[in-house]
């Protein structure tokens, strides 16, 4: 199975954690359709950890918790499919899941058979409690093979958090996405940390196996399983825009049934979704680079690296010849940023410039004197879809 876009959808973990059930999942599916999120591209409804009993049955199968899912998983899958959506579930490469429910270690083919019979479309596959006697790449290969031979197309979303140098081996496993950062929580500091982690692995991104920066916290507003301080609207906008510029899967984590107007405005931003889902899926590059101190280096890493960690300007070449340009201010103070078009390939000799349209306001402006000039408030961003025009 090959997928040609980063997945979009909703996952239960950020808000509900262990408190997940059939009613929540089905009501969320209803909302995705009725709110227009489905029309925006959100299609996966994913149950995370804590859906099963604590022990397998006599056949060695994982059993859905009958109190949480009284009709079983096939019933839930059928309901989600009836809405024109796709159904996702969770397991783990270890002996236990992260919440200490049965993992799939040494049961990969048994579990894949169950998932196929339940007609799931997506499997988030975590990395807790994995035996240290076995390398992670073997465990992900096992499940990938099990899914590839289960008789159903199922997306494998590998969730090893970049552990064991995942970036160097994940594509050989057959996984469709891989968690390229640590876990997110609902705070600005978490968003900033993950954004800066991602800069250093962008070159490992690509069609068919997408870098996954973890689920979105837009709209959580300090409530839910991974809630901390919450964020301002501006910080949620920066979060969503950065994930889109990086081409990450866009998996919503808030309780959509309670989502406010600000959250829906951000999550449904058509221009950012188009950038995230662009069919060419070229990796972003930085046009305000320089020599930056590597604070988190190990003994074998260079003292300096070329990532503008605190105020990057990113560019992605899009399929139709347009460009996506995103400027981000992760600092706590206002920043004036600039970059030359020569860094994109539009030197003065070309006779060309850019006409840039804001993804937030729709306003259009033309770049003059070969230089992009931006003023950003703390924790804010500006993102544009730009087209090449004559000066």
Please describe what this structure looks like.
The protein has 391 residues and is an alpha/beta fold. It has 11 helices and 20 strands. It has 2 domains: 8-276, TIM Barrel (Alpha-Beta Barrel), CATH 3.20.20.70; 285-390, Immunoglobulin-like, CATH 2.60.40. The chain has helices spanning 13-16, 22-34, 37-40, 73-82, 108-118, 136-148, 170-173, 188-199, 233-245, 261-267, 270-276; strands spanning 8-11, 44-46, 86-92, 122-126, 155-158, 177-179, 186-187, 210-212, 227-230, 250-252, 285-286, 292-293, 304-305, 313-317, 323-328, 335-340, 352-358, 364-366, 371-376, 381-390. It has an 8-stranded parallel beta sheet. Helix 9 (233-245) runs parallel beside helix 10 (261-267) and helix 9 (233-245) runs parallel beside helix 11 (270-276). It starts with 7 loop residues before the first strand and ends with a strand. The mean pLDDT is 95.
Entry summary:
This protein is of the alpha/beta class. Helices cover 25% and strands 22% of the residues.
List keywords for this structure.
single chain; eight-stranded parallel β-sheet; alpha/beta; TIM Barrel; Immunoglobulin-like; 391 residues
């Amino acid at each position: 199975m090959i997928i040609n876009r980063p997945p979009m959808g909703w996952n239960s973990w950020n808000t509900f954690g262990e408190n997940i059930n059939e009613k929540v999942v089905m009501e969320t599916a209803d909302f995705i359709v009725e709110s227009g999120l489905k029309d925006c591209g959100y299609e996966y409804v994913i149950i995370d950890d804590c859906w099963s009993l604590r022990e397998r049955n006599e056949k060695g199968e994982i059993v859905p918790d009958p109190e949480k899912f009284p009709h079983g998983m096939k019933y839930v899958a059928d309901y989600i499919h009836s809405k024109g959506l796709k159904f996702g579930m969770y397991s783990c490469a270890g002996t236990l899941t992260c919440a200490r429910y049965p993992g799939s270690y040494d049961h990969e083919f048994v579990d894949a058979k169950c998932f196929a019979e339940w007609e799931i479309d997506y499997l988030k596959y975590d990395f807790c409690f994995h035996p240290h006697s076995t390398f992670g790449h073997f465990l992900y290969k096992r499940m990938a093979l099990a899914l590839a031979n289960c008789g159903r197309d199922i997306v494998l979303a590998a969730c090893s958090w970049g552990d064991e140098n995942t970036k160097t081996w994940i594509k050989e496993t057959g996984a469709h996405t891989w968690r390229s950062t640590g876990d997110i929580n609902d705070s600005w500091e978490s968003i900033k940390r993950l954004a800066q982690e991602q800069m250093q692995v962008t070159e490992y991104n690509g069609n068919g196996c997408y870098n996954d920066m973890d689920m979105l916290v837009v709209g959580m507003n300090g409530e839910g399983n991974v809630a901390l301080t919450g964020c301002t609207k501006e910080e949620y906008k920066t979060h969503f825009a950065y994930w889109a510029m990086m081409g990450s899967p866009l998996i919503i984590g808030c309780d959509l049934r309670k989502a406010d107007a600000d959250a829906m405005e951000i999550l449904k931003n058509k221009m950012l979704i188009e950038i995230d889902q662009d069919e060419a899926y070229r990796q972003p590059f930085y046009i305000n680079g320089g020599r930056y101190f590597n604070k988190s280096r190990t003994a074998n890493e260079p003292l300096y690296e070329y990532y503008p960690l605190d105020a990057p300007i990113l560019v992605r070449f899009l399929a139709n010849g347009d460009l996506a340009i995103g400027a981000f201010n992760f600092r706590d103070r206002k920043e004036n940023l600039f970059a030359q078009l020569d860094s994109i390939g539009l030197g003065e000799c070309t006779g060309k410039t850019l006409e840039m349209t804001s993804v937030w306001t729709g306003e259009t402006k033309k770049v003059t004197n070969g230089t992009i000039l931006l003023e950003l408030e703390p924790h804010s961003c500006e993102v544009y879809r730009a087209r090449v025009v004559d000066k």
